[in-house]
Amino acid sequence: MSAQGKPQLAAFPKCYMDQLCVDKTMTLFDWIDLAATLGVDGLEFYSGFLEEDPAFLERVKSALERHKLAMPMLCCSPDFTQPEPALLKREIERQKRMIEIAAYFGGGFCRVLSGQRRPEVSRAAGVAQVVRVIKDLLPFAEEHGVVLNMENHYKDNYWQYPEFAQKMDVFVEIVDQIDSPWFGVNYDPSNTILAGEDPLELLERVKHRVVTMHASDRYLKSGTIEDLRKEEDSVGYASRLAHGVIGKGMNDYDKIFSTLNAVGFNAWISIEDGMDGMDDLRQSVAFLRAKIDRHFGG
């Protein structure tokens, strides 16, 4: 990161995931046209939005260019705790393809995760396998000019089990073993709350490794974090969980941004919000723009 400048703002269509990935009632081009009205600098894509057909990718690139939007971050959900060697190899090859696609769009970051927290995979074995796989991917990422950004994750929308490295100590154990300029942290404060932990404590532990951020806010529609944890093995996000308008939930963005500014962070912040549509996203954009200007300079 350079010593000057301030973070740029991207948007991620959390509100339209099923429409884009499952029932296909919205196209990626529909989303790009909608997002162009938000006043953001770029759009974070999810691997499930994309077709690997070169003609499709070229059309997507043209749509982004037409709206003067970057694609800085590609959100992938590799399952690197997969115990079956053939299936693990498939996950690795899929991640390589996503790195290539991120580079095609000019994106500097491609997300990695640990994988699902399967009951049969021990902590020691899971950590060792995840570290080995990510380290093995780093030369490929470097070749394509893409940084692998590992998120302190809760759960992919379409996974059965929660994130293997959901807990802070497991996440930090993995991150601390991978020392490379082509690897860093995608910090998501809300996911720390869902782990029953303090997002500011995690940030303090990884602040020098943060290369990108997911901006979100969360609240529980009913019950407690403990109730949520009992539902972790249901496919997808538990129904009691909600993404709220940023600034109206449980995260302290003044503290988060002042901490990031103090360590020289000036990369991409991607909004994960808008569960009730575009008005929520617009409110979140306005909130984050004001906070960025306050903490990183106008």
Structure overview:
By secondary structure, the chain is of the alpha/beta class. The chain has one domain (8-296): Divalent-metal-dependent TIM barrel enzymes (TIM Barrel). It is 42% helix and 16% strand. It contains eleven helices and eleven strands. The chain has helices spanning 17-21, 28-35, 54-66, 85-104, 123-143, 168-175, 189-194, 199-206, 225-230, 253-262, 278-296; strands at residues 8-13, 42-43, 45-46, 73-75, 109-112, 147-151, 183-187, 210-215, 217-220, 241-244, 268-273. The strands form two sheets. Strands 2-1-11-8-7-6-5-4-3 form a nine-stranded parallel sheet. β6 (147-151), α6 (168-175) and β7 form a beta-alpha-beta unit. α4 (85-104) packs parallel to α5 (123-143). The longest helix is centred in the middle third of the chain and has 21 residues, at 123-143. It is globular and about 45 Å long. The model has no long low-confidence stretch (mean pLDDT 91).
